[in-house]
């Protein structure tokens, strides 16, 4: 019986995924810092901590996202570990609120309010798994410059895919809110 890790997982590029996670968290961090009061209210609406602690914990979340960006850029393995944990926690928080029938609340992911959806949970779970799987990839120091540049290009493409996915999720939410159904 072969218990080796699938080659596909080992080939996930550490640099590309680290840059993707840095971009994802930098964008989320920008929106949170730009509208701190709205994010704090959104975080409180999730009802995962007592309301009196929500402003304090919201600031901790923002701090963790800032640390994630920096670590993904300068200490990729630690950054990916934090990114995977945060994304998994966000997905769990979203799932808990949907299970409570609270899908109408904002995800807190970006500038435009987007209600919690299965698509957001799946997006975060995929990103968390991607970050965790990238931890299995080889050492950055063992790569050629060409491989590193290819990974940077892959990260740019992945950021584009991430942004398009977010637009699709937001548009689907608007479509549902307008009274249209599948």
Number of strands: 0
Which segments are poorly predicted (pLDDT under 50) over 5 or more consecutive residues?
A: 1-11
What is the share of helical residues? over 70%
Q: Estimate what percentage of residues fall within beta strands.
A: under 5%
The span between the termini is 46 Å
Helical segment count: 7
- Strand/helix succession: HHHHHHH
Helix/strand class = mainly alpha
Biggest beta sheet attributes: none
Specify Rg, calculated over alpha carbons: 17 Å
Shape: globular
Average pLDDT score? 83
Explain what you see.
The protein has 182 residues and is mostly helical. It is 71% helix and 0% strand. It contains 7 helices and no strands. It has helices spanning 7-10, 14-34, 36-45, 54-74, 76-99, 118-134, 145-177. It is globular, with a radius of gyration of 17 Å.
Summarize the structure.
Helices cover about 70% and strands about 0% of the residues. It is mostly helical and about 180 residues long.
């Amino acid at each position: 019986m072969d218990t080796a890790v699938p080659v596909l997982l080992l080939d996930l590029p550490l640099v590309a995924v680290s840059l993707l996670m840095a971009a994802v968290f930098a964008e989320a961090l920008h929106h949170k810092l730009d509208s701190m009061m709205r994010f704090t209210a959104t975080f409180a609406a999730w009802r995962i901590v007592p309301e009196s602690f929500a402003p304090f914990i919201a600031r901790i979340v923002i701090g963790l996202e800032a640390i994630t960006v920096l670590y993904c850029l300068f200490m990729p393995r630690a950054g990916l570990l934090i990114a995977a944990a945060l994304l998994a926690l966000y997905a769990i928080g979203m799932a808990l609120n949907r299970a409570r029938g609270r899908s109408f609340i904002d995800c807190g992911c970006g500038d435009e309010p987007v209600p919690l959806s299965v698509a957001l949970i799946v997006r975060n779970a995929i990103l968390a798994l991607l970050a965790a799987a990238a931890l299995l990839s080889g050492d950055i120091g063992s790569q050629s410059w060409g491989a590193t540049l290819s990974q940077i290009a892959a990260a740019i493409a992945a950021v584009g895919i991430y942004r398009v996915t977010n637009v699709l999720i937001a548009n689907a939410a608007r479509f549902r809110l307008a009274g249209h159904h599948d």
